[in-house]
């Protein structure tokens, strides 16, 4: 595993590595519960120092040529890839996910750095047609200012890269609050940013166990002009309300309850492969994980038989051991939550169709549940674990109605070889993203985000850069 002598355990404020005024908090390995590091626990005064450092750095960073800013981001990307194995070891060490997934996460995060390093030089304004009286209108794009970034534990590198890269490329400076469960990857990532030559104050990292207090302080600051948060819908609502007092721009990527629809004209082998990828990555602990599997009556038995075989073949164990597919859940509390949700589902009429390997600790066995009705608790909540909940449907209209019967609207998936049906259903699904005959949909070139209670704004694509820019209108008199 990672060379623990190289683990960074300090906060990073104003270009300096500093101890936490609140002492330290422990970070453990979910696979065994062993404490792997004690990380600086900052207080609210240090958060203010980070905001001040970002605000001061912003005045000069925003004035640098776009190419100079983007060159720094690209240098960071190269360092990231050069340290891919070490970063992957850190991700697995503190999150528990299999090493193959951690390696993929580093590459995925690096793709955002590359994309926004290239897009940041294309923050174009417009010259508009002349107005009456010879007036000349035009628009320019300018950075929003200091950005507060709050990231989750399930993708400790990629979520930072996806937010920080466009912010820096646009000319913003950032204060990052990483998840307390996984701060080591964030700190290692920023250590590489320091090597890439970003000026002091451009990037600040404030690890802490006081997520609520720091979130409130970031939202209350008049110097913070934008908040970008990935996490639960409940917390997103709180942050959105708190940020309203300062009328901060807000990007929220919140909870999901993704439907995965399999029609009777689908390629079943492809659909099974897509489902396994969409469901069991990171042990089901992703916001875009397939949560509700809807299978048309005519292919239900054949499809579920194939899925059952795949579920039982999944290898459960520590992510550091090559070949394991399912690592531990992030905490014992997460394990209890999934266990209780499955118990409630069975009590409400679900049947357990397959259970994979069960190991002690935080490992939850991959599980297949059938006979799920829309009123079942597991149909209404984000599972965030390696549990498949499968139900039948008869008609296309029924499938769409069932899929849309949730307050969430992040990701959705459908499998069909009928191009007309694909277009009808894709347009009818009330979700920000639709995977069509595909289980892995995230990409740096495409906008990532949801509708309804799944959030506001987009990350990735041109839209991801626009979220860190303001459009200013200039009108020149004759």
Automatic annotation (TrEMBL):
Q: Which residues form the Aldehyde dehydrogenase domain?
A: 17-473
Q: Could you list this entry's UniProt keywords, alphabetically sorted.
A: Coiled coil, Oxidoreductase
According to the UniProt entry, its GO molecular function terms are: succinate-semialdehyde dehydrogenase (NAD+) activity
InterPro entries listed in its UniProt record: Ald_DH/histidinol_DH (IPR016161), Ald_DH_C (IPR016163), Ald_DH_CS_CYS (IPR016160), Ald_DH_CS_GLU (IPR029510), Ald_DH_N (IPR016162), Aldehyde_DH_dom (IPR015590), Aldehyde_DH_Superfamily (IPR050740)
The active site of this protein is located at 253
A Gene Ontology biological process term:
gamma-aminobutyric acid catabolic process
Give coiled-coil spans as residue ranges: 37-64
Identify its protein family.
Belongs to the aldehyde dehydrogenase family.
User: What protein name applies here?
Assistant: Succinate-semialdehyde dehydrogenase / glutarate-semialdehyde dehydrogenase
Species per Swiss-Prot/TrEMBL record? Ferrimonas sediminum
């Amino acid at each position: 595993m990672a060379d623990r002598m190289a683990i960074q355990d300090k906060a990073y404020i104003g270009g300096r590595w500093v101890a936490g005024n609140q002492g330290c908090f422990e970070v453990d390995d979910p696979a065994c519960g062993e404490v792997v590091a004690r990380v600086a626990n900052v207080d609210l005064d240090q958060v203010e120092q980070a905001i001040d450092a970002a605000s001061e750095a912003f005045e000069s960073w925003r004035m640098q040529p776009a190419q100079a800013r983007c060159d720094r981001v690209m240098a960071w990307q190269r360092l990231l890839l050069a340290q891919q194995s070490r970063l992957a070891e850190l991700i697995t060490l503190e999150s528990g996910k299999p090493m193959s997934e951690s390696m993929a996460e580093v590459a995925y995060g690096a793709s955002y750095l590359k994309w926004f390093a290239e897009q940041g030089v294309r923050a174009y304004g417009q010259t508009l047609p002349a107005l009456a009286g010879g007036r000349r209108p035009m628009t320019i794009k300018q950075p929003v200012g200091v950005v507060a970034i709050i990231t989750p534990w399930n993708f400790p590198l990629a979520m930072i890269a996806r937010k920080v890269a466009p912010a820096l490329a646009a000319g913003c400076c950032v204060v990052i609050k990483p998840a307390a469960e996984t701060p080591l990857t964030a700190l290692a990532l920023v250590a590489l940013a320091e090597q890439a030559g970003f000026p002091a104050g451009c990037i600040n990292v404030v690890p802490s166990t006081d997520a609520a207090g720091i979130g409130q302080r970031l939202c209350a600051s008049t110097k913070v002009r934008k908040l970008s948060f990935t996490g639960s819908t409940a917390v997103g609502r709180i942050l959105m309300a708190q940020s309203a007092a300062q009328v901060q721009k807000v990007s929220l990527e919140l909870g999901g309850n993704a439907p995965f629809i399999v029609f009777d004209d689908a390629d079943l082998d492809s659909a099974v492969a897509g489902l396994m990828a969409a469901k069991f990555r990171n042990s089901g602990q992703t916001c875009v994980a397939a949560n509700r599997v809807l299978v048309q009556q005519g292919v239900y038995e054949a499809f579920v038989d194939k899925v059952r075989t795949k579920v039982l073949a999944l290898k459960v164990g520590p992510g550091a051991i090559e070949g394991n597919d399912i690592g531990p859940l992030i905490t014992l509390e997460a394990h209890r939550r999934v266990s209780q949700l499955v118990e409630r589902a069975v009590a409400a009429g679900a049947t357990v169709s397959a259970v994979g390997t069960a190991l002690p600790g935080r490992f939850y066995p991959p599980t297949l549940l059938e006979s799920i009705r829309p009123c079942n608790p597991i149909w209404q909540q984000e599972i965030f674990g390696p549990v498949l909940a499968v139900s039948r449907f008869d008609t296309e209209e029924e499938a769409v109605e069932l899929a849309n019967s949730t307050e969430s609207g992040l990701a959705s998936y459908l499998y069909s070889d009928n191009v007309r049906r694909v277009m009808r259903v894709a347009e009818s699904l009330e979700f920000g993203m639709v995977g069509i005959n595909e289980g892995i949909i995230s990409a740096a070139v495409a906008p990532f985000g949801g509708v309804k209670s799944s959030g506001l704004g987009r990350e990735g694509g041109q839209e991801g850069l626009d979220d860190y820019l303001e459009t200013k209108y200039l009108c020149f008199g004759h």
